[in-house]
Design a protein that fits this description.
Radius of gyration: 24 Å
Distance between the termini: 10 Å
Shape: globular
Structural class: alpha/beta
Strand content: 15-25%
Number of strands: 15
Oligomer: single chain
């Protein structure tokens, strides 16, 4: 019922929001006589702030139209490769009429970025994608808002997430022979499960996995928000944060964790910071500081855009990752699309290199939570495992911003290049203006993908020349700690004492009900 109340309130507020937007322009437009009145700037700033606080925030666009590749401008075009009920596999195809640049683009590694499904849209990784496009063919999982998915398309479970990831990997393997996978935050767990299941079946697994700031072992290094999932029962989450989508959306009747509740929880974690930010925005508008005002708009256009998550997926994630710790206990079973139940065994992974990245000041996934993947993946030899801790970086700093671009990305790029193999179409003649031919729309089956890879993948290339590039960061000495990782029993013996933990996406559910009820 709360969702219906919220939507009713939003509909009633919409005319006032539109009026605030019009009034702000009325007092700021130099051709308007109202702009000459006393306190016109203050009036305009006040109405603009009211508009920003009351408006409905839609999904932002990635907005990546060009990238610079070694000094040459390359055009970028988005298109959907695979369209599933709850997710699109989105590709950023690059175009160039420079033959040397085009040949370079064709030979670059293929990377699947698995974006988090934890409240915000995949556009939160815009900086990650833009940076990766300089040296890679980039695909990303673009998760859909559950309230826009009709009930006829069925439910969405954590098992479905894992199966989606496997399908996307097979799709890229069917085109290029193989790929590399990067997971940021929440998807580190289902990505590890997906690759583990593929390895257990004997399928071809990705060349490398890069996992950044994720809750592989949510017991380690609890932060201020980590204990909330363990302090609340599974039934509490189900009874307090799950609602049905109202009738005015395509997904009417679907059980979801609503985006507005998630947003309330996000803001409740740092209310003073958000209040101060909005007041600074008001002052910037009065001063005419357009650059600062625009920076505020861009940030909150992204931050305020949230999506609904299917209830089954959300509740199963809480139980599996943050309450029962099924991955680290070795008790996680996943149901395949054919109905077969399979045990997740990370120790079966042998042919995929592993790179984990953590931020020193990460208050979402605590220190050691992501690094725990190395102890689980005992089948990967030590020289193929690496861990990196970014000094001074928080959760977002490891995949967005200056530290990502200057400290993390060079290491990720070198690690991927070190484990790259020639692709199917890498030696094709340069006859087109885009980086490779249009791929088939149909997703390859597990058997077909494995057969295609076996038939086309050559022997592993030497990596000695590129290995030193990932052992240090010359431009920022002391800022990054990168090291080889011990595997098997040694890694397990050195693990810190177990404790409770949770990510921001799950923690946000514990606070919003009271605030949202008052708002409703």
């Amino acid at each position: 019922m709360l969702y219906h109340i919220y939507e009713t309130q939003r509909s009633l507020m919409e005319p006032f929001t539109d009026f605030a937007q019009a009034a702000a322009k009325l007092f700021s437009n130099p051709l308007s006589p109202f702009s000459e009145s006393p306190f016109a700037q203050r009036m305009s700033a006040g109405y603009e702030l009211l508009y920003r606080l009351g408006k409905d925030y839609e999904k932002p666009a990635f907005g990546i139209h060009t990238v610079d590749v070694d000094g040459v401008g390359v055009a970028v075009h988005e298109n959907v490769e695979v369209d599933k009920p709850f997710c699109e596999l989105r590709r950023f195809k690059r175009f160039s009429d420079d033959t040397d640049t085009l040949a370079k683009l064709k030979a670059q590694p293929v990377v699947l970025i698995v974006a988090p499904l934890s409240g915000h849209y995949a556009t939160l990784l815009r900086d990650t994608v833009r940076t990766m496009l300089k040296d890679h063919k980039v695909y990303i999982t673009d998760w859909k808002n559950a309230r826009l998915v009709p009930l006829a398309d069925g439910e969405f479970h954590l098992d479905d997430y894992v199966n989606y990831v496997q399908d996307f990997i097979r799709h890229l393997q069917g085109i290029y022979g193989n790929c590399h996978v990067i997971s940021v935050c929440q998807p580190t767990v289902p990505v590890l499960a997906a690759v583990s299941l593929m390895a257990s079946r004997g399928e071809t697994t990705p060349l490398s996995m890069t996992m950044m700031g994720g809750p592989i072992d949510a017991r380690k290094s609890p932060t201020a928000v980590n204990n909330l999932a363990t302090n609340r029962s599974f039934e509490w989450f189900e009874n307090n944060v799950i609602y049905r989508v109202p009738d005015n959306f395509p997904g009417a009747g679907r059980r979801v964790y609503p985006g507005f509740l998630q947003y309330t929880g996000f803001v409740a974690m740092n209310p003073d910071r958000h209040a101060s930010s909005h007041y600074d925005y008001f002052k910037d508008l009065i001063k005419g500081d357009d650059a600062s005002a625009e920076a505020h708009r861009k940030f909150y256009d992204e931050y305020n855009a949230v999506l609904d998550m299917d209830a089954d997926y959300y509740l199963e994630t809480i139980q599996t990752v943050f309450q029962d710790y099924k991955l680290v206990h070795g008790t996680w079973d996943v149901r395949s699309p054919e109905g077969k139940v399979e045990r997740v065994r990370p120790q079966d992974i042998k042919a995929t290199a592993l790179f984990t990245v953590e931020g020193e000041l990460d208050d979402i996934s605590g220190s050691g939570q992501t690094e725990a993947a190395h102890g689980l993946c005992s089948g990967i030899v030590s020289k193929e495992q690496r861990h990196m801790e970014v000094k001074g970086a928080g959760h977002y700093g490891i995949f967005s911003g200056r530290r990502w671009r200057e400290m993390v990305y060079p290491q990720v790029r070198a690690f991927i290049l070190e484990h790259e193999k020639p692709q199917k179409n890498a030696a094709a003649p340069v006859t087109q203006t885009f980086e490779d031919a249009a791929p088939p729309r149909k997703t390859a089956t597990p058997k077909a993908a494995a057969k295609a890879t076996k038939a086309t993948s050559p022997a592993k290339t030497s990596t000695k020349a590129s290995a030193p590039a990932v052992t240090a960061t010359a431009s920022a000495p002391g800022a990054v700690a990168t090291r080889w990782v011990k595997t098997g029993a040694a890694a397990a013996d050195e693990a810190p004492p177990a404790d409770a933990g949770i990510t921001k996406a799950v923690a946000s559910a514990a606070r919003p009900r009271r605030s949202a009820a008052r708002k409703g």
